Every structure is written in C-alpha cells, then in structure tokens.
Amino acid sequence: MLVQAPGGDPDRIEVPLLEVHGITYDGRGGREVLWLADPGFKLRPPRYEPEGRAGAAGCFDLATREFRPLTPPDLPAYAGDSWRPTAIAVCGDTVVVADGYGASLVHYFRGSEHLLTLNGSDTGTDFQCPHDIAILDDQRLVVADRGNHRLVSFRLDGTYLGTFTDPLVRSPAGLAVRDGRLIVADVERAVLAVDLDRGRVEEIVAYPAEPKQPGWPNLDRGGETVRPDLAVGVLNSPHSVAVGVDGSLYVTEFVIGGREIRLVPAGPEN
Questions:
Q1: What does the alpha-carbon distance between residue 134 and residue 156 come to, in Å, rounded to a whole number?
Q2: Domains of the chain by start residue, with CATH
Q3: Which of 156, 202, 225, 260 can pair with 193 through a Cys bridge, CB separation 3.0 to 4.6 Å?
C-alpha cells in the first residue's frame, strides 16, 4: 500500500492483508488510521486463478503500523469461510462494514463491539452484494446494493429510510459524497451523481453506446484473458470512486493492470 502526504514522497507500507478492497481514512483526535476491508481473495496472473485466505476488516494505525481486525459477528452466516468484507464507513464512534462478497450483510460496530446487522429484509428484498457504503450528511447510511440494482438508505441506528431505483442505476459499485450529493461508480460503465432527496440522477460520464467486449471487464482473445484496449473518455468497468479536496473525482476500474481516472470539475461558464 502506498501512502503519500501532501507535498511528500510516497511511503510504501506493508499490511497483513491479501487484497485491500476498501479504504476509509479516519483522523479523529489526531490519530490517523485507515479502515481496510479485505475480501480475502485475489486473481493472480497469468491464468488469473483466485488465491484465497480468510477475509478481514479493521483499522491500520499509520503511526504504529499495527492492524487491528474486527471480529466477525457470531452469526450462523459465518459458520463457514464466508467473511468477505468489501467496504467500511465511519461516523463518530460508529463503524459500518459491508460484507459484499460474503454473506451479503451490513454490520454496525462501536469500537470492537458488534451492535446490529442489516440484511435488507426491511426493504422487502434481502441484500445481494452490498458492495459499498457511504454516510451522507452525517445522518444516513447509503448502501450500494449492487446485485439488486439499487441504493438503500438507513438511519445511523439502522432504521430503514427508503430505496432508490432508476434505469440509470444499473450496478452501483462505488460510492462517494460531493457537495451533499451521492457520487456512484456504476460498474456497468458510468459515473453518476444522485440526489436522493429530489430523486434525480445525472450522468457525469455516460454509459457507452457500444456493447461490452467478450470477456468483459477484460478481453477474451482466443481463450486467453488479456487487458482490453481502453479509450480515453470511455469507461470500461468503474469499481470505486473518491472525491479530492478540489472536487475532482478519482475513479478506479476493475480490469487487468487497473486504471485510474481523474475527472476535474468544470469551471464556471463565462
């Protein structure tokens, strides 16, 4: 993992994890930690067969270089090897973990204490890959329920608030917040801005008109999985998104070798 302070040199840090899938910064009280989610599997070249180990979620102290994992909830869903966290959100002392690739549950913790678990049943439909989570206005938890093509909102006490669906929300994978609006990286190849209060969706980067290539998100070339040709301005498989201090959006794509894209806010019109 690389960590770089403004104006400083990159610092390469070893962490005892296999695949850092979700990263959340927490600087409360002058103590800098990164909350990390590791689903516990990684595709390795050249055949991209999965390497697996136990999943993990917890905080990494940047000063001591110590990783402190959370203990998976003592639930029947975790009787086997099914703890596969994908994302963590933090608000005050509340830590929320999305187990997107495991039991498709969302868990609330306070410190190391497990408080409650959401399975989506309050909405009438259980979660199907709650891939990412974000906290909006320090009041609402938003779940990117990727397999159900929807965004689901809860109070920070777990009370269900509502479900948002729209034809443009196809497979929400990554969430961020900018100026009170939710930014969604949709793995079906778009970046969206969603105003949950007004029920509006705007395409920041639109879905491409052409169909997906064989072997998407990569390319199947004669039975071999290879990196596809990626075009500037056209998204292939946006997986996560973050907001910079200047409002820029940083989008990563799930593809062999990865791709990082910076979307700079448009300036004022003259």
A1: 11
A2: 1-165 (2.120.10.30), 178-270 (no CATH)
A3: 202
